[in-house]
């Protein structure tokens, strides 16, 4: 894509009302635009990253045996009254509204109240189990504080998967597979997410949260410096500096962003909607459920919190909006012609490239914008490189550059090693 | 995918509260599920069709030069007050709600109020024009009647594109390109959509609607039996049976479904938000806008209204949930083994197959369900075909069948002609 035609423009200054690193950098670089506190527009660059994250998650959910669905956001009051959640937590969390004829609706912040009665239409026998469905969908929450950019939105995108089982053993088997899938997802998008024990509600001892340790986090994680003990401070009986209850070594308290959680719901919702199955003898039992969430827009924000420097964002390759940023450094005929040619070669190789072809920007502006936008691989054509029939290749995160002959550009992309992301 | 594991199940009976053909067939076949009037869940089969429609539309929008974005559904009152639409049409159309601190929001039923101030952040010079952005996104409308299944939803999915231009000539040039793209989209999804003149509002003589003639339609189209004159009855000066104002021949009045519309907004919204650009001499002008909508969920409903028979849906190949429906007719070891082998071959060829492997369904049930689900190509393995080392191939819409040797199955898919859809 030609950068001169891109809908967004990078900006020198962050919006004055943003405090979080993710919102400042993503806004300045033209990935998102704030409509109001907690609601952002995803601009072409931002949507490309979001779709990369989405595809990584979708692949893993399909692999788990999840079937993709799409459930409504506009939900009838009746479903939420069946579980008591219309009143508690009620408006503390949920946007509630009245339409024509004073009909009452809520905007979905989770979908147990929709997916459980839906599953009841298709599940009646042990032969119909196990099942798992998921969606990637917009959710709404009336957050009291919405000041952390994409980390806490009033409107945000989630993947939520719901699983259905005959018994606890089958639920736990699936739950453990989901834990592994989650670890792979976070690693793929460039996040080092800890598995942290958290409150299991009334029905389970623990749930598990996936927490990314970073100063921008709103949660506190207590974890052992030696073993794999890690708990959300909300449930932990030990404080930072104390002794690990598992191995006795020291635990630390650190800020972290919760990017996913998994939860054994057991029969909390199947009881409310009488979702049962008949076993081989014809006896009825409640279906046991699990739920598994990942906040996609929060993951996007967390990636930026973790992967940036003083100049801008540094995207992990798997989620970067483009694979390479091609820059015609000077507005000189030979440089333009050389960069056009390189662009043609890259397109033929199927490499997704943002081509900075802007005529009126200085070399300095182009490099500053490229630092801000953060595409992991940069290809610069300048009068100097043209003289050597070459293109300068530089990883966003590194100082070193490499000269590649124009004729070797296609081969370079076929054989190069992916940039390492910790 | 193995049909025995599919989340949904086909049902003999339509939900008692559905009157439209599209909702009855799509519900019975397990593509959608009604949560309440005007709000449906898209089940795995339905979502697959929706994604096929989405990809056809996305390809054409990118080809037009559109850049994909995603704008919020939850929108501040202030933006809608700027154009007067908070009050008029106001609650007639829009769900309006209050959140914490009595802050007022509306749920987006269109996005001019969001995209115009957004464009103002990036467009200031003639050099920034033209531009076009689009989204594929969930919209909300507080419809008084929501009884036509997917044809009129309170929550529905739309593609809306907005274009920005320096002058009317440039706007019209883009508008005409969009008309051609729309015609291609509807043809691709299997709809014969007329281009119909409709009200242009206060600023243009006409807008254009894309109307699919079918008894289920809620609009009336007046069209000439000979020339290409076609108008929405709302603006037409001639009645059905009258003389065509263009060629003098007879016009008819027919019911039709509006699946898309395109509209020259000109400066209606750029004036409200002071979206202007500087020309080469530094003089300010309002940016001229166009908007271009397609209802994806409505398209899905319209396809079913047009493509069905007394037994069920007949999907056009381009949008079908699977390319082929493979059926193991009898629950006999040789048939099961033969069908498993065929399934393996088809998967290796990259053919998307729904494999009816259900052990407890009779041959009759399987064929009845296949008729209802409507995958355009059916592959049946039975004791009879096994004896001939073959598989029976049948187009959903036709009576004739063809026997293909197991060993020729891969070749058949490489060379077969696509099923024709009018």
TrEMBL record, chains A, B:
Keywords per UniProt: Aminoacyl-tRNA synthetase, ATP-binding, Ligase, Nucleotide-binding, Protein biosynthesis
InterPro entries in the cross-refs: aa-tRNA-synt_IIb (IPR002314), aa-tRNA-synth_II (IPR006195), aa-tRNA-synth_II/BPL/LPL (IPR045864), Anticodon-bd (IPR004154), Anticodon-bd_dom_sf (IPR036621), Pro-tRNA-ligase_IIa (IPR002316), Pro-tRNA_synthetase (IPR050062), ProRS_anticodon_short (IPR044140)
Domain of life where this protein originates: Bacteria
An MF annotation (GO) of this entry: proline-tRNA ligase activity
GO BP field: prolyl-tRNA aminoacylation
Domain Aminoacyl-transfer RNA synthetases class-II family profile: from-to ranges: 38-316
Enzyme class: ligase
Keyword Nuclease attached: no
EC number, as in UniProt: 6.1.1.15
A GO CC term attached to the entry: cytosol
Reactions the enzyme catalyzes: tRNA(Pro) + L-proline + ATP = L-prolyl-tRNA(Pro) + AMP + diphosphate
SUPFAM superfamilies given in the database record: Class II aaRS ABD-related (SSF52954), Class II aaRS and biotin synthetases (SSF55681)
PROSITE patterns per the UniProt record, alphabetical: AA_TRNA_LIGASE_II
Name of the protein this chain belongs to: Proline--tRNA ligase
Species for this entry: Candidatus Uhrbacteria bacterium RIFCSPLOWO2_01_FULL_47_24
Origin organism lineage: Bacteria, Candidatus Uhriibacteriota
